Amino acid sequence: MNPIDYLRISLVDRCNFRCQYCMPEGADLQYVLQQNLLTQDELMLLVQEVFIPVGFTRFRLTGGEPLVRPDVVEIVRSIATLPETQDLSMTTNAFLLADLAQELYDAGLRRINISLDSLKPEVFDQITGSRGRSRWQPVWDGIQTAYRVGFNPLKLNVVVIPGVNDTEVLDLAALSLDREWHIRFIEFMPIGNDGLFQDRGWINSETLRQQIREKWGLTEGQVRGNGPADVFQIPGAKGTLGFISQMSECFCDRCNRMRLSADGWLRPCLLNETGQIDLRTALRSGVPLYELRQQVRELLMLKPDINYKDRDSGTTGRYARTMSQIGG
């Protein structure tokens, strides 16, 4: 196992989109009550007194949609200014990013991942559950603004859904040719979206790579850092292409991350719901911080066995929460 030093922090479980793969139609979404969300003070106490002391130095802010949280810039600044923070990034749908990109950059955020599942406004709106006014242009404006502000690397995440956006793989890959943008193709996952998953299934990353290889060629893949993406590049391109292949090419043995939900549950594995710790309740009940640190240390030791590396590709029905409730 790699050192477990990367924590994904969900700031809120709500979102201004309702993407099919994350918040599927018909799902019984029980949003966390405002009083049950971790406050900024509670979050920073956990980061400084629990997570950093046990070895976490890399943080990613997620949701839901993190930019809908009013104090998001203050949270970014608080984490970015900690001397132990080696890396701070964010995943966003970019709908609100055009107005916030400069503030976030000034607060210390340098890396950002943006969900962009289609270049066609009508398909984009279908995936994101838009009703009425299209959301594609504000997202594209947010991407362009982030690029101008100086976010580097700027990564664009694409969840490939058969029969929906799979015909756009080459167009999306082409975004890496002339800009230092990094396109990441993500295999569609069965988490809280059984109906759609069973209807659509998933496309393995090698099939996508072969399409790109036949058009432009493709360098040999390599793993950069400890993340889940296998990284390739079109010869001569300024950006790269990453493939996150959690369904077809298990990467559990190099996983270096845990997830903290917006209501304070620490999860050791995205694909396995065992071993979770309710840190919010413990914190508010007065459990000493040294006991919380010990609980997290013990969970770190158990993580190699909790990682869901024995799953069968295509398995569904194991997950009690949707992706938005988990924190992505």
Notes on the structure:
- By secondary structure, this protein is α/β, with parallel strands linked by helices.
- The longest helix has 18 residues.
- The two termini are 21 Å apart.
- Helix content is 34%, strand content 16%.
Total number of helical segments?
12
Class computed from helices, strands and strand pairing: alpha/beta
- Count the E strands: 12
> Which value, in Å, is the CA radius of gyration?
19 Å
As residue ranges, the low-confidence spans are: 310-319
Mean pLDDT over the full residue set: 86
- Output the helix-strand order: EHEHEHEHHEHHEHHEEEEEEHHH
Write out key terms for the chains shown:
328 residues, alpha/beta, twelve-stranded mixed sheet, 12 helices, 12 strands, globular
Describe the secondary structure blueprint for this structure.
Blueprint: E1 6-10, H1 40-51, E2 58-62, H2 72-80, E3 87-92, H3 97-107, E4 111-115, H4 121-128, H5 136-149, E5 154-160, H6 169-173, H7 175-178, E6 181-187, H8 194-200, H9 205-216, E7 222-223, E8 230-232, E9 240-244, E10 257-260, E11 265-267, E12 277-278, H10 279-284, H11 289-306, H12 323-326
Parallel strand pairs: 1-2, 1-10, 2-3, 3-4, 4-5, 5-6, 6-9
Antiparallel strand pairs: 7-8, 8-9, 10-11, 11-12
